[in-house]
Design brief:
Elements (H helix, E strand, L loop, with lengths): L5 H10 L11 E10 L2 E15 L6 E8 L2 E8 L5 E8 L40
Antiparallel strand pairs: 1-2, 1-5, 2-3, 3-4
């Protein structure tokens, strides 16, 4: 339940952008619009989502990647027009909402198990009653 004025809620809801669903532990590629002088280009930032904050228009998420052996984190506003697209590469199976413990880990200990999609049940052959 929000205690915002109804007019403010209408304006905020109009600014929401449809994004794919993802959760902490997922590996995502965020295409960010970067302005260089007159040109505007897309820059990909691929990493693991270590935190997500769901607050309507103020929703945000943090992505962490290792670049040249150095950990790099970048926080994004979910509904920002600077974000061109978000692609979920793989789903991670984690049991925490905030994965800040990955900051102290590197190598194999920083790996995240992949969440496997549920398999469809096998078809059962009907028995022939003779």
């Amino acid at each position: 339940m929000s205690n915002k004025h109804p007019l403010v809620q209408v304006i905020e809801n109009a600014q929401l952008i449809e994004r794919p669903s993802f959760a902490p532990g997922d590996t995502v590629v965020v295409q960010v619009k970067v302005r260089e002088g007159e040109r505007e280009r897309l820059q990909a930032f691929e990493g693991v989502v270590i935190a997500k904050r769901n607050r309507g228009l103020n929703s945000a998420f943090t992505v962490r990647k290792i670049s040249s052996g150095v950990g790099v984190e970048r926080a994004f506003q979910l509904h920002s027009p600077i974000i061109d697209s978000i692609e979920v590469k793989r789903r991670g199976a984690v049991r925490r909402a905030k994965l800040y413990y990955l900051r102290e880990r590197s190598g194999k200990s920083a790996r995240i198990r992949e969440k496997l999609a549920p398999r469809a049940p096998k078809a059962v052959k009907p028995k022939a009653n003779a």
